[in-house]
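Duplicate of #3305? Posting structure anyway:
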């Protein structure tokens, strides 16, 4: 079995329960491989918590999270077969964009000529061609978010987690990035979980919807 083995669901929550302060969460569902799934619901319902459980930033009190059929119990976030773009773009302020994105390929920056081309290509695809030597502090919030998206592109993982990735972008660029996401999905047939409050974004991108309310998933 490999992470891209389509005989397994991309994500499975097996009676996963988690308490954070007074908030209680219970997720039990199966997310099939190769789809774009919109995660919707009111603020505070548990959408980001669901993604954090998949990514490994939260650990269930009970139950199991499986990715491509493999139990993720005890698996470090960096070892999981996924990429993510959260609201906090998580770029290293002291590093230029080329280095920030190259870290997505190899944490020690041991990059082949092909890897270096992939970094430049990713920057071009998100509209940041020529920004390789720029530091994150010199960029707008939207540009930093696009750079974070470029880093996710070069990782080429079978599962992509997105937490309102286009919220900081103006409407025209938001539409362009949504089109890019669709193009990349058609190329890779990866599985995408995207948290969004934008109904137009849901209609444009999603094959199906997970509605999260009061810490659990509703049909």
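Output from current build:
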């Amino acid at each position: 079995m490999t992470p891209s083995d389509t005989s397994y669901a991309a994500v499975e929550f097996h009676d996963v329960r988690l308490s954070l302060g007074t908030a209680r969460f219970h997720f039990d569902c199966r997310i099939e491989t190769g789809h774009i799934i919109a995660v919707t619901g009111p603020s505070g319902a548990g959408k980001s918590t669901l993604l954090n459980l998949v990514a490994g930033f939260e650990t269930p009190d009970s139950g199991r999270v499986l990715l491509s059929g493999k139990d993720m119990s005890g698996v470090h976030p960096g070892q999981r077969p996924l990429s993510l773009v959260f609201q906090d773009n998580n770029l290293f302020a002291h590093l230029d964009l080329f280095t920030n994105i190259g870290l997505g390929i190899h944490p020690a920056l041991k990059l082949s000529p092909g890897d270096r081309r992939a970094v430049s290509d990713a920057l071009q695809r998100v509209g940041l061609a020529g920004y390789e030597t720029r530091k994150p502090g010199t960029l707008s919030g939207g540009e930093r978010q696009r750079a974070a998206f470029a880093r996710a592109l070069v990782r080429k993982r079978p599962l992509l987690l997105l937490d309102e990735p286009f919220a900081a972008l103006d409407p025209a660029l938001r539409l362009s990035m949504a089109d890019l996401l669709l193009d990349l999905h058609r190329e890779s047939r990866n599985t995408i979980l995207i948290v969004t409050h934008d109904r137009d974004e849901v209609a444009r991108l999603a094959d199906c919807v997970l509605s999260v309310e009061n810490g659990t998933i509703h049909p």
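Confirmed duplicate; merging threads. Residues 1-81+159-175+191-219 form a domain with the Rossmann fold fold (CATH 3.40.50.300). The two ends are 30 Å apart (CA to CA).
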